[in-house]
């Protein structure tokens, strides 16, 4: 396989996070607030990267399992059917995350991470232990397996932090000073 063909094949999975990032950037150009922009980013990432990215994997594993096996560098097995439905579960979670709370999005990201980070470890193991440099085992798939859940968790965590009221440090500081002076006064009495 030529270098250009390899690069093209290994880059295919990057389509989904790229579309999600471009869509979110365009959609947030005139956002009224950081919270609104963050919500838009979360929705684009959930629907396009995790949702459609996983749905695409479902469809390809169900319709062209031999092509997928070759792309990954494996023999075709019945487990590809199971991988298809695991990806369908991720797609459903991604679509559900559109209207989820920050806490639920963190949970969705963690759930996706359990499968995708496990897949990432498996791909890297196959790469180094068995020299599997197939385009579907290295490159773009590694980036997606890492970033789909990690970005979802990071965005949701940031949204949760933004929505949690922060204590007013000036009142905390003055109440601490009052407590200190009260304690000093009681020692003198």
Care to give the gist of this entry?
It comes from Nocardia colli. By secondary structure, the chain is an all-alpha fold.
Describe this entry's structure for a reader.
It comes from Nocardia colli. Keywords: Membrane, Transmembrane, Transmembrane helix. The chain crosses the membrane at residues 6-28, 40-59, 79-99, 106-128, 140-157. This is DUF4345 domain-containing protein. It is a single chain. With 189 residues, this protein is mostly helical. The protein has one domain (3-188). It contains 8 helices and no strands. It has helices at residues 3-11, 15-27, 34-63, 65-72, 79-96, 102-130, 140-163, 169-188. Helix 3 packs antiparallel against helix 5 and helix 3 (34-63) runs antiparallel to helix 7. The mean pLDDT is 91.
Helix/strand layout:
Blueprint: H1 3-11, H2 15-27, H3 34-63, H4 65-72, H5 79-96, H6 102-130, H7 140-163, H8 169-188
Can you tag this structure with a few keywords?
189 residues, mainly alpha
How does the overall form come out from the CA principal axes? Answer: elongated
Task: Summarize the main sheet.
Answer: none
- Poorly predicted runs are none
Cα radius of gyration in angstroms = 23 Å
**Mean pLDDT score:** 91
Distance between the termini: 88 Å
Strand share of the residues?
under 5%
Percent helix? over 70%
Number of strands: 0
The figure for the number of domains is 1
Q: What is the helix tally?
A: 8
User: Which secondary-structure class do the elements indicate?
Assistant: mainly alpha
Tell me the series of helices and strands, N- to C-terminal: HHHHHHHH
């Amino acid at each position: 396989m030529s270098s250009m063909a390899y690069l093209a094949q290994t880059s295919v999975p990057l389509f989904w996070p790229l579309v999600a990032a471009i869509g979110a950037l365009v959609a947030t150009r005139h956002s009224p607030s950081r919270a609104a922009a963050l919500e838009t980013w979360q929705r684009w990432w959930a629907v396009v990267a995790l949702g459609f990215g996983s749905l695409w994997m479902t469809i390809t594993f169900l319709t062209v399992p031999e092509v997928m096996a070759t792309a990954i560098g494996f023999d075709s097995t019945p487990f590809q059917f199971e991988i298809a439905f695991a990806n369908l579960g991720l797609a459903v979670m991604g679509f559900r995350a559109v209207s989820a709370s920050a806490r639920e999005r963190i949970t969705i990201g963690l759930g996706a991470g359990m499968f995708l980070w496990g897949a990432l470890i498996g791909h890297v193991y196959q790469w180094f232990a068995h020299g599997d440099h197939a385009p579907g085992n290295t490159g773009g798939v590694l980036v997606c397996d890492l970033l789909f859940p990690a970005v979802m968790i990071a965005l949701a965590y940031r949204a949760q932090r933004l929505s949690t009221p922060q204590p007013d440090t000036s009142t905390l500081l003055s109440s601490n000073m009052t407590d200190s002076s009260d304690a000093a006064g009681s020692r003198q009495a």
